[in-house]
Amino acid sequence: MNVNDLHKVWEIRTLKRKVGGDEARRFLEKIAKQVQPIMHKHKWRVKVLSEMCTFRKALPSLSDCRPIPTSIKMGELTGYQLGVIGALFLSVASSVSIVIVNKALMSNLGFPFATTLTSWHLMVTYCTLHVAHRLNFFENKNIDMKTVILFGILNGVSIGFLNLSLGFNSIGFYQMTKLAIIPFTVLLETLFLKKQFSQKIKLSLFLLLVGVGIASVTDLQLNFVGTVLSLLAIMTTCVGQILTNTIQKRLNVTSTQLLYQSAPFQAAILFVTGPMVDQYLTKQYVFAFKYSPLVLGFIILSCVIAVSVNFSTFLVIGKTSPVTYQVLGHLKTCLVLGFGYTLLHDPFTQRNIIGILVAILGMGLYSYFCTHENKKKQMLDLSPASQIKDKDSNTPLLGHQDKENHFEVKKATKDSLV
User: Residue 333: helix, strand or coil by DSSP?
Assistant: First the structure.
């Protein structure tokens, strides 16, 4: 077993006896190694795998005392589910908070430089993770530099395209751009990753998109440049989020490790291009802006919250999927509309209320159908035939030929998806 893999059997206990103890331990270690691929796939952990004995009147040999593995349901699945819920909650709470702070910063305090602000967010995120790494809060893992650079640049470019799309389009068309990310992600995962989405999942996503559209889309003013920028924003965002999920699972890296290595490249591309993009959109230069203590305070607060936003984004996509992350994003949209009405006294109409209710219905159905289908899939994955099929069909996204064992990574070479 890979000692560095957290998703494994942590401890093996055998019965105390003079004869057969080593044989029982070897048998349990063999079982632990056989089930590790399943545990790694579902991110399960088992604290103790114990030997149980069937008592008889006499125990003349080891054959009368057989090691029986504990059930793999183990309360570790519950721990994994709590981890997913925690990641989702952290993502929603931090994202809604940063939207409210940024709205106050840009609307009330007149600081319009969104792209440059995002580069500062990523710089602070990297510095925070670097300090955490130096304090041994997490272990860094080497990833092929080409993969990290291309991934970081892609994510930075996608942020720039989204901001340009907002600048060249009406608010309504920009909201439609964000709504289009889900169906485009479904299309890409179906075509390139051979992922199947049931009709029930598609129906729930359709309801969600209709609801958010009713609540947030108002005017639709089209222009050629804005449409091209929106298409580029959709494509880069979808590919970036799919790669966020794929890199973590295929290269066996955590969300923290991936964010730590890619954040400098995302920050660099935005730090270079951000002032130019913002100057083109706002006709103002970010470094000529008069920074009052109040503006600086809100910028610092925004950067601090952004650490949690960036971390939770990678965490949620890694633990769930890009589509689930987008669904969560639309939940944030509904919450922001609600908080905007409650805290900032934004206008709120009957149309907003109907749209939010329809969107919540779609989210609820999506969550229910996903949970139901995942349970069925887990039952199938526990069968030996399913493990063999999965081993044969699991191929990397960017054509990387894996010559190693499918569930272990050689320490002598760096991992790469490119």
Answer: helix
CB distance 11 to 32 below 8 Å? no
Give the three-class secondary structure for 195: coil
Distance, in Å, from the CA atom of 118 to the CA atom of 306, rounded to the nearest integer, reads 9
pLDDT tens digits for range 30-42: 888 878 777 777 7
Q: Rounded distance, CA 227 to CA 165, Å?
A: 8
**Rounded distance, CA 44 to CA 81, Å?**
10
- Give the whole-angstrom CA distance, residue 278 versus residue 113: 5
3-state SS, residue 14: coil
| % residues pLDDT > 90 (the chain) | 35
Question: Helix, strand or coil for residue 126?
Answer: helix
Residue 214 to residue 352: CA distance in whole angstroms: 7
Reported as a pLDDT band with limits 50, 70 and 90, residue 353 is: confident
Q: What is the pLDDT of residues 248-284, one digit of tens each?
A: 988 889 889 999 999 999 999 999 999 999 999 899 9
Q: Is the dihedral of CA 347, 353, 359, 365 positive or negative?
A: positive
Could you give the CA distance from residue 152 to residue 164 in angstroms, rounded to a whole number? 19
Query: How many CA atoms, within 13 angstroms, populate the side-chain half-sphere of residue 25?
Result: 11
Q: In 3-state terms, what secondary structure has residue 46?
A: strand
Q: Report DSSP letters for 263-287, one per residue.
A: HHHHHHHHHHHHHHHHHHHHSS-GG
Whether pTM exceeds 0.70 = no
Going 115 to 120 to 126 to 129, the CA torsion angle's sign is negative
